[in-house]
Design goal:
Residues 149-313 form the Aspartyl/asparaginy/proline hydroxylase domain. InterPro entries: Asp/Arg/Pro-Hydrxlase, Asp/Asn_beta-hydroxylase, IPNS-like_sf. Belongs to the aspartyl/asparaginyl beta-hydroxylase family. The structure is a single chain. Helix content is 38%, strand content 18%. The strands form two sheets. Strands 1, 2, 3, 4, 5, 7, 10 and 12 form an eight-stranded antiparallel sheet that branches. Strands 6-11-8-9 form a four-stranded antiparallel sheet, with no helix packed on it. The chain starts with a helix and ends with a helix. A hairpin with a 2-residue loop joins β8 (268-272) and β9. The chain contains eleven helices and twelve strands. By secondary structure, the protein is α+β, with helices and mostly antiparallel strands. It folds into two domains: 2-111, Serine Threonine Protein Phosphatase 5, Tetratricopeptide repeat (Alpha Horseshoe); 135-327, B-lactam Antibiotic, Isopenicillin N Synthase, Chain (Jelly Rolls).
């Protein structure tokens, strides 16, 4: 191991033997990166350095570690130079970056190290075969125009509730049990993040629904799951000025989450995976909440969005029926 620690290029056969014995050896992966870089196999070198850095993070190793720092610097150089070469190639072939499709541009960002891979990571139930998409285009759904058109009337119903001092409760109660909360544990029983639910896990609040007829009738036209004890959830969600919801993931990737922003001061942001967006009043967000996401309200007033869930559009009627049977109370 002394040759690895010293920074010289180690014997690759010895490294292969080391990784056979210790497949999570950070030194072994860095050494393999060094070998491949010395052989001018930069693609493989990037893979080995990237894996070493991931394993080091999982093992709690400090990035300030000299070997890790050197690996990170070499990976950054490989990614930068590779990005310049790929971009120049595309330009020479008549395809400059400004004309790239969205997915191709994202692929180039991944190759350049500008984007991370954020997997679906549901906390309760994983449904296979569904694409990993951070934000969905609302225009791809037939029902979204009607929801956005109703936003002023929905906002008026919300303001009437607020004027009547209708109580918002803390989103995270003391019954969260084994749900992994991480940095969001500080929000348990904390009204920095609070909700007013017309329907929660499929159970309707008739009194609130009666006071919000436009909200309720509008959302019934969306493909909301109707599963007692599971869905839909239709709720006004309030994030106080200065509050932050730390990174977390949702429970089921067989549904998507929708935000209809109703009261949005300046300084409010929302991240899903790699992409950070600002809410715009009356404009829907549709996203996969099993991809890591977080929210900030850096404004001077409270932010309120209407949140509801819909079936994933990729699911067949048979699959929706099977999930309904599985999750119904």
């Amino acid at each position: 191991m002394s040759d690895i620690a010293s920074g010289s290029t180690p014997d690759e056969a010895a490294l292969n033997a080391l990784l056979d014995r210790e497949p999570r050896s950070v030194d072994g992966w860095i050494g393999k990166g060094d070998c491949r870089l010395a052989a001018r196999d930069v693609g493989a070198a990037a893979y080995f350095y990237r894996t070493a850095l991931r394993l080091a993070a999982e093992q709690g190793m400090a990035v300030e570690n000299s070997r890790l720092s050197r690996a990170a610097e070499r990976l950054a150089t490989i990614e930068h130079e590779g990005d310049e070469q790929r971009t120049a190639l595309m330009r020479s072939r008549g395809a400059p970056p400004e004309g790239w499709s969205s997915r191709f541009a994202q692929a180039m960002d991944h190759a350049a190290g500008r984007r991370r891979r954020f997997p679906q990571d549901p906390t309760a139930f994983f449904y296979p075969g569904l694409p990993t998409i951070e934000f969905f285009d609302p225009a791809a759904f037939a029902w979204t125009a009607a929801v956005e058109a109703a936003a002023p009337a929905i906002r008026a119903e919300l303001l009437a509730l607020i004027a009547a001092d209708t109580d918002f409760r803390a989103y995270l109660g003391d019954d969260v049990g084994a749900v992994p909360l991480g940095d969001n544990r500080r929000l348990v029983l904390n009204k920095d993040w609070s909700v007013l639910a017309l329907c929660e896990a499929g159970w309707v609040d008739p009194a609130l629904v009666q006071r919000c007829p436009v909200t309720w009738s509008t959302l019934l036209a969306a493909p909301i799951p109707r599963v007692s004890g599971w869905g839909p959830t239709v709720t006004f969600s309030l994030l106080k000025a200065g509050a932050h919801i730390a990174p977390h993931t949702g429970m089921h990737n067989s549904r998507l989450i929708c935000h209809l922003p109703l009261i949005v001061p300046e300084g409010c942001r929302f991240r899903v995976g790699n992409e950070v967006r600002e809410w715009v009043e009356g404009k829907l967000f549709i996203f996969d909440d099993t991809i890591e996401h977080e929210a900030w309200n850096d404004g001077g007033e409270d932010r309120i969005v209407l949140i509801f869930d819909i079936w994933r559009p990729e699911l067949s009627e048979q699959e929706r029926g099977e999930l309904t049977r599985l999750f119904s109370d």
